[in-house]
Queue: 3 jobs
Job 1
Amino acid sequence: MQKQKDPPTTSSSNFSFQKKVWTTAAIFAFLIIMLLLINATFNVLLLILAGSLIAVFFRALSSIIQRKTKWKEGICVAISIISTLLIVAALFWLIGAKVQVQIIELMDTLPKTIDKAKAWVNESSMGQKIYDQIFSEKSIDKAQLFLPGFFQSTFGVLGDVYVVLFIGIFFTISPQTYTKGFVQIIPLQGQQKAQQVLDTLGEQLRKWLKGKLFSMLVVFILTAIGLAIIGMPLWLVLALLAGLISFIPNFGPLLALIPAVLVALMQSPQTALLVAGLYILIQFIESNFITTVIQKKLINMPPALILIAQLFMGALTGAWGLVLATPVMLIIIVLVQELYIKNRNKDPEPSPAKE
C-alpha cells in the first residue's frame, strides 16, 4: 500500500511572499531616498548644468579656431578660454566706468520714478484700485515670503559664479574624462547607447546655445539703437540689461521692460509709451523671426512646455531654475526621444493571428 504524500507546507510560499514584500519596500525606500537626494542637491545639479553650457561654448569656439588654423586641440582650447575671459574683462574695463555711472544714476532715478508713477496711477480710480491691490499688506507679505527663497543662491552669488566658471573650464579641458567615466558606470550592453545619447545632447545644447547667444546680441543691438534714437538716458545699461535678460525666455523681456519704462516715465508718459512699444516690437521680431529660424535647427520645444517648466523650476529652485529651465527641458526631450520613442518605433509590429 502506497504512502500518502504529505500536503505541501506553506512555509516556502510565506517566504516567497515576505521576500516580495521586502523587495518592494526596498525599492520604495530607494526611490524616496533618491527623490530626497535630488531635491536637496538640485541647485547643485543646476550649477553643474550651467558649467556644462560654458564648456559647450568654449569647446565650440575652440573647434572653430582649430578648423581655421589647423592648430592642436589643446592650443585652441586654451585660446578659446583665455581670449573669452580677456574679451569679457576688456569690455567691462572699456564700458565699465560709463555703465557704473549709469547704474548709479538708475539707482538714484528709480525711487523718484516710482513716486512719479504712483502719483500718475492715482489720478484714476482704476489705477488706484490696481495700486492698492498690488501694494496691499497681504501682497507685500506674500512677496516677502517668496522673494528671499527665489533669489537665494547655493554658495552666494560670487560663489555660484566661481563654481560655474571653474566647472566649465574643467569640463572644457578634458570632456572625455567625464563622459567616459559616466559611460563606464552604465551596464556594458547599454554603453554604446549612452555614448550616443551624450553626443546627441552635446550637439543639441551647442546648437541651442549658439542660437541663444545670437538672439541676445540682436536684442542688445536693436534695443541700444532704438533707445538712442528715442533719446533715452541710461540707454547703454538698459540695452545691456535687455540683451542679457533675453537669455530667459518669456519672463526676460518683461523683466527688462520694467526699469526701462520707469526711467522713461521721468521724461514723460509719451516717452514711456514709446519705450514700451520699442520693447514689444523687438520682442515680436525676436520671437517670430530669430527664434523661428533657430528652432528649425533644433528639436521641437513647444513654448507652453517651456513656460510650464519655468513656473515649476522657478517655484522650486528659484532664479537658477528660471534661467536654466529651457536647457533642462531640452535635455528631458532628448532623453525621452532617444531612450523611449526611438526604441518604441523600432519594436516589431505583432503578426496577425493565424486562423
Job 2
Amino acid sequence: MLVLLPPSETKSPDGDGGPLDLAALSAPELTPVRERLVDALVTLAADAPAARTALGLSPGQDAELARNAALRTSSTAPAVERYTGVLYDALGVRTMTRAQRARADRRLAVGSALFGVVRAGDPIPAYRLSAGSALPGLPGLRALWRPVLGPALTGTGELVVDLRSGAYQALAPVPGAVTVDVLSERADGSRTVVSHANKAHKGRVARLLATTTAEPDGVVRLRALLRRAGLHVEHDGGTALTLVLPPS
C-alpha cells in the first residue's frame, strides 16, 4: 500500500543530513525534471522581485528565497520530518514505535512540486515551491510532471491511497487510486465539507494506514480497516471513500 500525502508550505528548518543528492531519491526516473526545477529555483532566488512574483511571496518572506538559493548546499532531513503543519502533527511520526516507523517509511510518500514525489525517508532540504507556481522560462509544473510522474505513481503495483490536495493530484492523477473526502454531519442530518480540520483528519487516517499490520488490497478492505478503527466511512462504489464526522 502506498499512501500519498500532500506537502506543506511550512517546513522544518532542522536537518543533519548531507547536501541534496537527487540521484539518491526514490523514483530516479524523475531526476531530469528535478534537476531542471532545482536549477531554476536556485537561479531565480538571485532575483528577489522576480522570485517573489513567481512564488507568491511578500518581502517579509525572503527567508524562503534564501532556502531556495541554498538548495544544493543546505542540510537535509527525511521528507516525512521535513514537512510540518496540521496534517503532519496528526500523523505524528516522531511518536511512532520503531516497528510503526518502519512500516510508515515503506508506505508513505509525499507529493511535491519540486521533487514530484518523495518517499518518507528520502533526504530533502527545506524549499519553497507550490503546485500553482509558474517559473520563468519553464513550462507549467503540470506539463513538466505529468508525463513522468504519472507512470512513476501508477507503476508501483501497490494499492494507492491518494490523500493529496487537488492541486497536487492535478500534477499527476493516479487512475484507480482510493481517495478520502471528509464531511461533517450537522444535527439536522445535513452535511458540509470540512475545511479547517480536513488536514488533521487526513493526518489521522494516514497514521492509521501507515502503522497498521494489515495489508488491504482494495477499497473494500480499506473501508473495513477504517471502520474497525471506529471511523464512520461510507463507500458508494468506485474508489472514493467518505469519512463522515459526527455532530459536535
Job 3
Amino acid sequence: MLTAVAILIDGLGFAAWLFLSSVGLTLIYGVMRILNIAHGGFYALGAYSSAWAIGLYMQTGSSVAFTYLLIPLMAIVVGLVAGLIIERGILRFMYGRDEVLMVLVTYAIFLILEDATKLIWGTESLVAYQPAYYLGNIEIFGIPYTVYKFALIGLAVLCGAVLWWGLNRTTTGKLLLVVIEDREVSSALGINVTLFFSATFVIGTTLGALGGAVTAPQISVVPGIGAEVIVMAFAVIVIGGMGSIGGAIIGAIFVGFARAVSVHLYPPAELFSIYLVMAAVLAIKPYGLFSLAQGRKI
C-alpha cells in the first residue's frame, strides 16, 4: 500500500516537472516545425537566473514570500529577452530550410547558451532552497512530501489548462491553428505568420525557462543540467506525438510513472524504463500517440 502511494505521488510529481520542461518544446515544433535543441539551454538559463535572483533577494533579509513571484518573473525575463534575440537575430533567416539544418542550428545555439551560463554565473553550483523549504512538508500515510512538489503539480495543471484555453477558445489561438495547418494559405489570407512565429518561440522559450526556474529550489543548479533535460523532454514529446499539447501531457504521465515504478521497485532500471516506454510506443505508433496523419513521401 505504501509503495503504491509513493509511486502515485512521485509519478505525478515527476510528470508535472516533465510537462513544464517539455511543453514549450512541443509547442515550438507544432507551430514552426523546429526541433529546438536549444530548449535545454533556456531551461538552464531559467534555473540559473532564478537561483541567482533568489540568492540575492534572500541576502536582504526580506520575507521569503516574494521569491514565489520572483521565480516566474525571471522565467519571463529570460524567455522574452533571450527568446527574442535568438528568434529575430538567427532563426528568422532560417525559416523554410531543411528540418535537419534547423536541428544543427539550434544545437549550436544550445552550445552557445551552455557557455553563456558559465560565463555569467561561473562553474560553481547555485543553491536556492528557500522557496521549497519554507512551504514545509506534508505527511501522506506516514510518508513525508514537500508541499512544493504539490505546488508544481498544480502549476502544471494550470499551464496545461491555460494553453488549451488559449488554443481552442480564443481568436488568436484559432488563427494560430490555421497557421499550423498551412503557412502559405495563412499568409494569403492576411495573417501575419512572422508575428505568430515570433510569439510562439518566445512563449515556448518562456515555458522552457519556467521549467528550469521552478526546479531550481529543489536541486543544486550546476553546468550541464540543460543537456539532461533536453533528452527527457525529447522522450516525452516523441511518446505523445511531436507538436501535440495533449500528447505532451500523456507522454509526461507515461514517463513520470515509468520512472516512479522503476525507482521504487528496481532502481537500476530508472533510465532504461523511460526509453523502454518510448521504444514500445514507437513500435506501435511510429509518430507518437497523438501525432497528426503524416503525408506519404515519394
